[in-house]
Amino acid sequence: VSGDVVFPVLGAAIFGLGFAALVGRRHLLWRIIAVNVMASGVSVLLLTLPGRGADGPDPVPQAMVLTGIVVMVAATGLALALAVRIVAAEGRRDP
Amino acid sequence: MAAFDVLLACLLFGLAARLLVTTDLFETITLFVSFGLGLALVWVRIGAIDVALAEVALGTGVTGALLINTRRRLENKAPEWLEVTKYSPAAALLPALVGVVAGGAALAAFVFRLRAAAAPGFADHRPAELPVQNPVTAVLLDFRAYDTLLEVAVLLAGVVAVWSLERGRPAVPAPASAAEEPVLAELVRWIVPMAVIAAVYLTWVGSYAPGGAFQAGALLAGATVLMLAAGFLRPYTSGSAVLRGAVAAGLFVFTGAALVTAAMHGAMLRWPHDSAYWWIISVEAVLTISIAAILAELFVDVPAARGRQ
Questions:
Q1: Whether residue A74 has pLDDT greater than 70
Q2: Across all residues in chain B, what is the average pLDDT?
Q3: Which residues in chain B have Cβ-Cβ distances shorter than 8 Å to A17?
Q4: Could A1 and B2 be called an inter-chain contact, meaning their C-beta atoms sit closer than 8 Å?
Q5: How far from B217 is each of A52, B42, B130, B203, B213, CA to CA, in Å?
Q6: Mutate: best of A9, A17, A42, partner B, most B CBs <10 A
Q7: What is the pLDDT at residue B114?
Q8: Is the minimum CB–CB distance between B37 and chain A shorter than 8 Å?
Q9: A74 and B55 in contact by Cβ < 8 A?
Q10: pLDDT category of residue B307 using cuts at 50, 70 and 90
Q11: Would residue B100 be called left, alpha or beta, if left means φ above 0 and alpha means ψ between -120 and 50 degrees?
């Protein structure tokens, strides 16, 4: 198996794992983490699918993934703040 | 080196599978951070060093710290939320679901791979002369600067949303004196100056080597959170004009630059040819400060260390 195939398959598998946890788990924090894992899978696919260039992947998808990582951090921060708010508002555990 | 890639892929798959099914939140966070570091190795293997730096600093560092801070908040507010029992129906469904989704996605990946090979890349549209030598920075701040401008707007919107969620929260008590956690205080005294130097270096070096405003901003944010934890900074100051100014400065300066360039020659964010480098490095410098402030503000009520209570 060449290295050009390993990482795209890894990206797809990570995305699948994240998706399974997103729909399978009830706990809000694991869902937030699952979305992060899914985003990692997408990044791996985006950067490794076109194969390896001489000096790294194409700069445009690299910049897109970089943007994605930054936006994901902001989204995660907001989601975590919302989750804590939900816990405080409900005052009980999600069944 | 194909064997190393396979090993790395197996490691990452195992980490992802374990962190998503375990019922101990602290274990999940630890594994998530390990997963991010392993992912950074993938980026290094394919030569995407800028992405590797961002993954370590932001995707792993800041996100991991955010998760730990949230876990602590839950521990104080609603500890029963941390006692997760196993999630029985999903546990049975999980392997089947993973197989279907991952298999389908991998298949789609190979189909798209054929198309990706035909799609033109940056190299085909690349201007003859880049204003900065690092192609990723050139894409972020010249070729597709509009995307980056909107990304900063998304960050600002995120922190404003977090602020509005936290309205009415009781004021955090004054920080404890740093002497109560001497090891942490000493660590912060060593790390913060180094982080500041590294952040300045990363911003500057981003023009011709991997680095840039986002990685540097994450470093500064990490230093800020450490100072909060050690009690060197007052924790809650979202009402302060200085903090609000720092949070908004990136978007304002970037937008201002867009308007000025539009007035100069009718094209937004097309930098003047002879001074493009200085436009980019100036915008990056302001962005670094702004991103640091925004990321640090995502950490809602970091407690000042006051020893074991």
A1: yes
A2: 82
A3: 13, 16-17, 20, 98, 102
A4: yes
A5: 29, 23, 24, 9, 6
A6: A17
A7: 57
A8: no
A9: no
A10: very low
A11: alpha
Q: In Å, how far is B196's CA from the nearest CA of chain A?
A: 20
Q: How confident is the model at residue A95 (pLDDT cuts 50, 70, 90)?
A: very low
What is the rounded CA–CA span in Å between residue B63 and residue A34? Answer: 13
Q: What is the pTM for the complete model shown?
A: 0.86
Closest-CA residue in chain B for A32?
A: B67
Q: Which residues of A touch B158 (CB under 8 A)?
A: 74-75, 77-78
Distance CA B290, CA B287 (A): 5
CB–CB of A19 and B97 under 8 A? yes
DSSP codes of every residue in chain B: -HHHHHHHHHHHHHHHHHHHH-S-HHHHHHHHHHHHHHHHHHHHHHT-HHHHHHIIIIIIIIHHHHHHHHHHHHHHH-GGGG-PPP-HHHHHHHHHHHHHHHHHHHHHHHHHHHHHHHS--HHHH--SS-SSS-HHHHIIIIITHHHHHHHHHHHHHHHHHHHHHTTTPPPPPPPPPGGGSHHHHHHHHHHHHHHHHHHHHHHHHTTTSS--HHHHHHHHHHHHHHHHHTTSS-S--TT-HHHHHHHHHHHHHHHHHHHHHHHHHS-TT---GGGHHHHHHHHHHHHHHHHHHHHHHTSTTPPPP----
Sequence-distant (6+) residues with CB within 8 A of B119 are: A50
> Chain A partners of B5 at a C-beta cutoff of 8 Å?
3, 6-7
Contact A40 B39 (CB under 8 A): yes
Q: Which residues 55-74 on chain A approach chain B with CB closer than 8 angstroms?
A: 55-60, 62-67, 69-74
pLDDT in tens, B196-244: 999 999 999 988 888 889 999 999 999 988 888 887 776 555 567 888 8
CB contact at 8 A, A84 and B77: yes
| Spatial separation of the C-alpha atoms in residues A55 and B200, rounded to whole Å | 26
CB contact under 8 A, A66 and B73: no
Q: Tell me whether B263 touches chain A (CB under 8 Å).
A: no
**A33 and chain B in contact, CB less than 8 A:** yes
Residue-level pLDDT at B23: 84
Segment B93-122 mean pLDDT: 64
